[in-house]
Specification:
It is built from twelve helices and 28 strands. With 609 residues, the protein is α+β, with helices and mostly antiparallel strands. The strands form seven sheets. Strands 1, 2, 4, 5, 8, 9, 10, 11 and 12 form a nine-stranded mixed beta sheet that branches. The protein has a five-stranded antiparallel beta sheet with strand order 19-22-27-24-25, with no helix packed on it. Strands 13-14-15-16 form a four-stranded antiparallel beta sheet, covered by helices on one side.
């Protein structure tokens, strides 16, 4: 039997040990409690130039502009993909979409006979085995909520299966069932929005839900993911805000869509309410607020009331690998760390937010990601190590973009188009508009970057496209005619390009006599055809000699001035006898160019005699 003294000493040791454990637990609890809150706000289809703080003179965005004044604004931030779901997967995991094999919006655009390549079989949901930002932060003691658009999988793959305690409005869909209550379509409600007063506006409701979550979790660290559906189509705005823009004269600005402006106004108003809630609860000084977008603004026609916006001076928009499709706003407000009104010109990407937020919040080390922490950049305490940024988009976009990949290294960016292997090289420092293709001037650099892009695709296991065995380009119509539209042409050379709707819909930038274009087409009713063209030509550029040819049959045309490159005139240029069924190729090649440009060419038609 142990003595009374022994039992007493053991008791004292147990009491002391318990005290140590309680003290450690208290310290741990306090460490968790004082961790910063995080709010990640993602606008849908918001362009790089759409905010006042990024130069818009039409859109009214005082709340987001306030964020920029109180934190750091990145001028060269990139989405991980030119369309939504892949970027959202990157925001959640810190990995390139190509590594995740989730490379298009879900469920994606079906393969079509008119497309040369088939898309790879990509994932239809964010895999559950991936560790999301929400899972990392929840493991560190955070309350987590996703309030808004998910678009990374349906039943079994929703936010609550990916680390979020709360999900409101997030499901497999890419656009809302309705922007006005009831939030229902085809008999199905948006999650947790079954109860809502008729006419309530979705952006306002998501903001109210976000305020409620912040209020309920004021005494513990929280991660609020607030991916708004706005400003994605269908464009629908509150009437009172719409009148604010429709009652004013329509400005002669690249951005002048009143519906889109009113939707953005509501989104900005919501950001302002969230910031006000943080101020009221005394949480502003320990809450990191990040604001960004999932891809460039919709700058082409895709449904009613579009294009939504203009990304000028950047080229193209959503669905394209040019800067207008990839570059997005990124603002980080980190009280006590980010200097107010600071600006960072370092190229960064969606993949960087997971390691950044994890480091700031003291979550477990993030080593299994493609991104880099931007914490030192935001604090202005150091630079990122040298790296390249990559994109892989093996799909035809709804907006007209063709499948391809891209790499940015330093100031240079290379785009590879998968259909033909065409390469384009740009110096973004001196040419952010991507107007001057340097492929002929810097061939060694282009080869090096192309090799780098191929090597990266292999390293991440990027999926390849495959030829479409049933490819039927530009088929013959039932009346026997063949229409060769500018958008279906293959371009050859350096500068000539297809310029899409809404502004052009033409083959333009034809400033080199060595550049040419071609079309493949199928004939099942052989006969003699009249060849017709729609051409435009500005003053001072007339007189180019252009050869239109199919095989050995050639027609030489002198291009006429029309008073403007977009002032198209219809011309019959001769006849061709196509007496064989099957695949043919028509080419248009300049043989001389006395003026600054050859022409703009909208269409070639073969009309039966």
């Amino acid at each position: 039997m142990k003595s009374t003294k022994s039992r007493g000493l053991r008791g004292l040791l147990l009491i002391s040990l318990a005290g140590c454990l309680l003290t450690r637990s208290a310290f741990a609890d306090e460490a968790v409690r004082i961790r910063p809150n995080v709010i990640l706000i993602v606008a849908d289809d918001l362009g790089w130039a759409d905010l006042g703080c990024y130069g818009s003179r039409y859109h009214h965005t005082p709340a987001v502009d306030r964020l920029a004044r109180e934190g750091m604004r990145f001028t060269q931030a990139y989405a991980a993909c030119p369309v939504c779901s892949p970027t959202r997967a990157a925001l959640m995991t810190g990995k390139y979409p190509a590594r995740l094999h989730l490379t298009d919006w879900l469920p994606g655009r079906p393969d079509q006979p008119a497309k040369r390549l088939f898309r790879p079989p990509f994932r239809q949901a964010l895999p559950l085995e991936e560790t999301t930002l929400a899972e990392r932060l929840r493991a560190a003691g955070y309350a987590t909520a996703s309030i808004g658009k998910w678009h990374l999988g349906g039943v079994g793959f929703g936010p609550q299966q990916q680390g979020f305690d709360l999900n409101i409005a997030g499901d497999e869909t890419g656009s809302p069932k309705s922007y006005f209550a009831p939030y229902r379509r085809d008999g199905k409600f948006m999650p947790a929005l079954e109860q809502a007063p008729d006419g309530e506006y979705l952006t306002d409701r998501l903001t109210a839900e976000a305020e409620n979550f912040i209020d309920k979790n004021r005494d513990r660290p929280f991660f609020l993911y607030l991916p708004h559906y706005a400003v994605h189509t269908p464009l629908m705005a509150k009437p009172e805000l719409l009148r604010k823009y429709t009652d004013a004269p329509k400005p002669a600005l690249p951005q002048n869509n009143p519906l889109y402006a009113a939707m953005l106004d509501s989104l900005d108003e919501g950001v302002g309410k969230v910031l006000k809630k943080l101020d009221e609860l005394g949480l502003a000084d320990r809450t990191i607020v990040v604001f960004t977008s999932d891809n460039g603004g919709l700058a082409t026609i895709e449904g009613p009331d579009t294009p939504s916006t203009s990304n000028a001076p950047l080229r193209e928009g959503k669905g394209y690998l040019y800067e207008g499709g990839l570059r997005v706003p990124l603002i980080v407000k980190w009280p006590g760390a980010a200097k107010p009104m600071s600006v960072c010109e370092t190229p960064v990407c969606s993949i960087d937010l997971v390691p950044t937020i994890a480091e700031i919040c003291g979550a477990p080390m993030v080593a299994d990601v493609d991104g880099l922490s931007l914490a030192a950049l935001v604090r202005q305490a150091g630079d990122l190590p040298a790296r390249s940024l990559f994109w892989h988009y093996p799909h035809y976009s709804n907006q007209g973009g063709r499948p391809g990949g891209a790499v940015r290294d330093g100031d240079h960016k290379l785009i590879e188009f998968y259909e033909t292997g065409r390469l384009e090289l740009f110096d973004l420092k001196h040419d952010p508009q991507e107007n001057a293709n340097l492929i002929d001037q810097r061939p060694e650099l282009a080869r090096s970057l192309a090799a780098c892009l191929r090597e990266w695709r292999g390293a991440v296991g990027a999926q390849d496209m495959r030829p479409n065995p049933d490819y039927v380009p530009n088929p013959q119509a039932t009346d026997g005619s063949v229409t060769l539209a500018a958008k279906t042409a293959d371009v050859h050379g350096v500068m000539v390009r297809y310029e899409p709707l809404p502004h052009k819909n033409t083959l333009g930038f034809w400033v080199r006599a060595d550049d040419w274009v071609s079309w493949e087409f199928d004939i099942n009713q052989p006969q003699t055809f009249r060849v017709e063209i729609l051409q435009g030509c500005g003053t001072g550029s007339g007189g180019s000699q252009v050869e239109f040819a199919v095989g050995d049959q050639k027609l030489m045309v002198t291009i006429e001035e029309t008073g403007g490159f977009q002032n198209f005139v219809h011309r019959e240029i001769g006849t061709m006898n196509l007496d064989k069924r099957g695949r043919h190729t028509l080419t248009a090649r300049p043989r001389s160019k006395p003026g600054p440009a050859v022409m703009d060419l909208r269409e070639v038609r073969l009309v039966p005699e």
